[in-house]
Amino acid sequence: EEGTAESLLNNVNDNLRKVEEAVNVELSCFAPQAVRCSLKDLVPYNLTEGWSEEAKAEFCSVVGSAAVEMRPLGQDRDSLLVDLRKAPMEQSTDVPFSVREYLVFIEVARFYSPVTLGRRPLMYYPPVYPEASKELNAVVCHINNLSDFYIQLVDNMESLLLSAKLQDCYNALTEDKLRVYCPVIGQACVARFEDELWYRAQVIGHPGGRKVEVRYVDFGNKQILSVSDLRKIKDEFFALPAMVRPHQNT
């Protein structure tokens, strides 16, 4: 124990130096470079246990050493209350996500008083409806009930080309490329289906447990997936509107 204490003392002495008076006066002109911060309105998921090691690890993995966008939201005693957002990528379709919302989504934190800060996500172009009384060939691709089902027009071959391009593009990506950290309700994305193929989708719900509910916009069916099965959608796949036309009889 004495050896350990002596080693520690030597280490401290090697890294500490007294500051001469002249240098101390010069350094006093500089404000402290580090600002103490706190994520606004965020509390531990389990209030009785406090912040978990998992919460800290997830926060560190998201923030990392890269620069993030900071939004000051107020001040509490000696802390600046902030939200942190991952900087957007070059693509205009990329939706920057809030670190606060991400930690809540993965259930390591809760909102004490939620504040909506996110931008509205980009949406798909609406489907093009055929003219009234015009006869067309169609395929019923998904049925919820007799008053709510979806069709695709047989003459529209764009869907086949779209599907092939999606597989070529997203199968070539590494797992972390275009990863979705915090899906926003209404967000356009690409989602993997149970057949292991990729399809255009839209986030429609947060069922919990790091799951997300999506609707496949070119077929009409819904699915609950792990967030790891989502990817951000590239600009080129916004060019076509949703392929299915919902039919609802009232």
TrEMBL record:
Gene3D superfamilies: 2.30.30.140, 2.40.50.90
Classification via InterPro entries: SNase_OB-fold_sf, Tudor
Superkingdom classification of source: Eukaryota
Leader sequence residues: none
A Pfam family it matches: TUDOR
Tudor domain residues: 182-240
Name under which the protein is recorded: Tudor domain-containing protein
Organism: Xenotaenia resolanae
